[in-house]
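Quick question, first post here. What does this chain look like in 3D?
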Amino acid sequence: MKKTVFATILFFLMLSVPFFHPLADDLQNKINDLGSQIQALVQEKNLTQSDYDTAIAKLNSIKSQIAEIEAEIAQKEIEVKKGEQALEYQKNLLNQRVNSYYKNVNKNSLSLITVLVSPNLSDSLRDFFYQKSLVDSDKETIIKVVLYIKNLEEIKANLTQQKASLAALKIQVDQQSQTLASKIGDLSSQISQLVAQQQSLIAQRLAALNLPQSAYTSTSGCSSDLTNGKDPGFSPGFGFFTFGVPHRVGMSQYGAKGRADAGQNAEQILKFYYNADYTTGYNTGVNIHVVGTNEYGQNIDQTLNVEDYLKHIYEMPTDWNMEALKAQAIAARSYVLAATNNGASQICPSQHCQVFKQEENSDAWKQAVSATAGIVMTSGGSPISAYYSSTAGGYVYSSSNSISSRPWTKNAQDGSGSYNNFSDVRNNAYDKSSPWFYCDWGGRSNYGNTAWLKPEEVADIANVIMLVQKDQSTIANVYQVDAPNPAGKDTWNQDRVKQELRNRGGNPFNSVSSVSISADFGSGRVTSVIVSGDAGTQTFSGDDFKTYFDQRAPGNIQIVGPLYNVERR
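> Answer (accepted):
Ran it through. C-alpha cells below.
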C-alpha cells in the first residue's frame, strides 16, 4: 500500500515539471528581421507611414511573444520550487532504494540456489520471482528518481539561460522601439509641417479668388453655373458647386434682404443672426479715426463722429429694403465701436474692416443710419463685433469654426423652412437671391473659363486622396499639375500618382462615372463623397475631399465652403 501511494506521488511530481523547450527560433528570426527593417528605415530618406506601420506591427507581435514566454518562465519557476521542496525526500528515497536494491539482488541470487536444491520446486519458484519483482521495482524507482533529479536540474539550467536570453532580447527590442519612435516622431513632425504648409497654400489659393465678401461689390458671380450656358468643350463633365462664400459668420447680407422682403424688421433680423441684445440710446458722441487705403485706391486719414463715419460706409446695395439697410447700419455701428474699443484705436477703410469711402453714401443709406442712431447690438453692455458677409448659403456658423469663439455668434439654418436635402436649401434659404448663393468657383481659359472637370480629372483627385491616406508624406507631391509646385517639390502627374498608389497596395481610378454627396443638413456640412468608376467605389469624408480638391484641382478651381454639391453635364 505504501509503495502504491509513493509511486502515485512521484508520478505526479514528474508530470508537474515537464521539460522546458528552448526559445523558438522564429521569435529570434522575427527580431532579427525587425532590426534589419528598422535599420533600413533609419537610412531611408523618403519614409512612408506604411513602412512604419509594418514595423510597429512586427514589434508589437514580438513584444507580445516575449511577454508570453516570460509568463511561461514564471510558471516554470513556480513548478521548480515545488520540485525542489520534494527533492530532499526523493534523495533519501533514492538512498533507501539503492540499499534495498543491492540487498534484494543478493537475496535473489541466493534464492536461485535455493530453487535448484529445494525439494518443493513450486514454493521455491514463487519465492524467487517475488524477490525478482522487488529488485525490478527498486530498479525502476531508482531510475525514475534519478531522471526526475536530472530533469529538474536541466529545467533550472534552461530557465537561467532563457531568462538571460529574454533579458537581452528585451534590451534589443527596447532599443529598436526607441529608434522607431524617434523616426516616427521625425515623420510626424514632417507631416505636421506639410499639413500646415498645405493649409497655408490652400488659403492663398482661396484668397486669390477674390470672393465677394460684401454685397455691395461688383465682383462677378459663378464661373459656370447651370444657367449661364458656358460650354467647356467637353462632355461628360463634373462641377462642384458651393453654397455661399466665406466667412458665413454673423449676418448674411443677402439673408437680411430676404428676411426684410419677407416682412421682418431690423430688430428681428439682427436677433436671428446674433445672440446679443438690441440696445438703444448708446453713446453717439464717440469719434472714429479711419486710416489706410480702401478698395477704390483712396488713401484715408480722417476722424469723424461715429454717426458721420457710418454715412461713408459702402457694404450693402442701397436700393434694398429699408429694414435690411437699417440692420446693416446697426451691425456696422456695433462693429466699429467694438473694433476701436469705443474710439480708443483706429480702423482701416477696406473690407478687412469695413469699406469706407471719402464721399458719403446715398440718401437711402443715410436715412437708415439716421433712423438707427444710438442703436447697437451688445453683450454684457458692450458692443459686439457684429460680423457679416454677403452670402452664407442658407446657414450661419459660429465664429469658433473659423476664428476664436465669440458667444454672440451661432450655428443656425437661415431659411424659411427646414432643410432635408439640397433642393430644400436652394428653395428655402433667405439668401437664395444672391448671385453667389450656389456657385462653382475658378476656371480655366482653355475650357471656356469654366470650372467643369473631366472624369479623369475627378479620378485623379480621388487617387490623390487614396495615396495620401496610405502615405501622408506624399502631400507635397500632389499639388496641381498645371502650376509650379508651391512647396518646392516634384509634382506627380496623373500617371505617377496612380503608380505610387499601386506601389502602396492601392487600386487607382482611370476614370470616374459618378459622384454623389451626402450631407448633414442640420449643420450644413458635407459628410461624405462617394466616387464610382473603373476601380469600384470609394467613400471619402467631406473635409478630405474638399481639402485635396482645393489642392489638386487645375486652374484656380476650388470648393469654397463646407456645404457643396456635384452637378453633371
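Residues 100 and 138 are 7 Å apart (CA to CA).
Residues 1-21 have pLDDT under 50 and may be disordered.
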